Amino acid sequence: MGQIDSLTRIKAGWLAAFLLFVVMGVAASAAPSVRIKDIANIQGVRNNQLVGYGLVVGLDGTGDGNRSTFTVQSMVSMLENMGITVDAKDVKVKNVAAVMVTADLPPFARAGGRIDALVSSIGDAQNLQGGTLLLTPLRAGNGDVYAVAQGPVNTGGFQASGAGASIQKNFPTVGRLIGGALVERDIHADFNLRTSLTLSLQRPDFTTVTRVTDAINGLFFDPIASSADAGTIDLQVPAAYIGNLVELVAMIESLEVTPDVTARVVINERTGTVVMGENVRIATIAIAHGNLSIIIKENTYASQPLPFSEGETVLLPDTEVSIGEGENQLVLLPQGTSIGEVVNALNALGVSPRDLIAIFQAIKAAGALQAELEVI
After folding, report:
1. Mapping DSSP to helix (H, G, I), strand (E, B) and coil, where does residue 293 land?
2. Counts of helices then strands in the chain (DSSP H, E)
3. Structure letter (DSSP) for residue 340
4. For the segment 187-230, what is each residue's pLDDT rounded down to a tens digit?
């Protein structure tokens, strides 16, 4: 009898696995667009910003000048800590630059790990190329030291100048330490002992948050996820995954959903850039775009007097005015026109990107643009 029960449980297990495989296959056939890990974050799992003040030495006369008093003070203080007493008036800092060092400490970082750091000059240094950052403590917002940075600075650019000309590539006053920051303190987080999780959408949307919630509940055949608002999903950890939260998160992150986006037209008037989403639609409207050009050309000619008339040569103006108007025709766009049809119609008018900005602003003013118009 016990053997029959065991066989029944095995068959039930195989049946559940088969149903899960079928459901995942159907979901994959629907070709959803993105993974949940690409559109949502787990609250509490984030980077921590670190910052510190340090000195870059070994520069070839391109460091801070003596007018940067904080650099002189830093040099004097550092030498005194090493048992060397000097007078600030005798310190020349042209080979030294004061810098701010920043880094992002990833979640679950452990002592002994290495991270990158960014070095930025805060004085009047001209170039950090070839310099070496001295030991710099990196602190978090609470004032605790979580990493120390030291090593050669990679600027990725250069600067050279002569008596009458100079050349520069990129920004030589900013450099990077590749793996130059050493983690000194662990970030304690009892992540694996949690009984609940909270997912935050990067772009809150009611439709998207509903699709994510349904995808999670459909995976576990249990309503373990619920949406609190348009950007937050509360998730109760199933009993089978308590103490094994890493596997649960990996399964949820790999789920794919189709996020919903608001129809929007983004315009950058400074660069003439226009970006339109695929959901942009317009009502029935007629568009005419013609270029009117007026050219005014000023010429002068000399009026010569008759021979022996004792007259004077006079310069007289001659103005030519010409008017040209484009031959673009009126284009009718029916209601519900898609973004592809809008582009084709406007291309037929021969409009430039900057003309396109004016056209979309006019369509929005006419109440025919069924999308948000955002000017950046």
Report:
1. strand
2. 6, 23
3. H
4. 777 788 888 899 999 999 999 999 999 999 998 888 999 998 99
- φ/ψ of residue 136, rounded to 5: -125, 115
Q: Three-class SS of residue 267?
A: strand
How far apart are the C-alpha atoms of 58 and 56, rounded to whole Å?
7
Per the CB < 8 A criterion, the answer to whether 255 and 33 are in contact is: no
Q: Is 281 exposed, middle or buried (0-12, 13-18, 19+ CB in 10 A)?
A: middle
310-356 residue pLDDT tens: 667 776 666 565 545 555 555 565 666 666 676 676 666 667 777 77
Q: Is residue 117 a contact partner of residue 138, using CB atoms and an 8 Å limit?
A: yes
Selection from 360, 363, 362, 341 nearest residue 352 by Cα: 360
Q: Alpha-carbon torsion 328, 348, 370, 276, what sign?
A: negative
Residue 266 CA, chain-centre distance (Å), reads 16
Q: What is the pTM of this model?
A: 0.64
- Say how far apart CA 133 and CA 152 lie, in whole Å: 6
Backbone angles phi, psi at 150, to 5 degrees: -165, 140
The token pair that represents 59 in the structure block? 């520069």
From CA 266, how far away is CA 299, in angstroms rounded? 45
d(CA 330, CA 285): 10
Sketch the domain layout of the chain as residue ranges: 48-158+169-183, 190-260, 264-293+324-375
Contacts (Cβ under 8 Å, ≥6 apart) of 315:
300, 301, 302, 303
Distance, CA of 77 to CA of 65 (rounded, Å): 17
Distance CA 119, CA 177 (A): 7
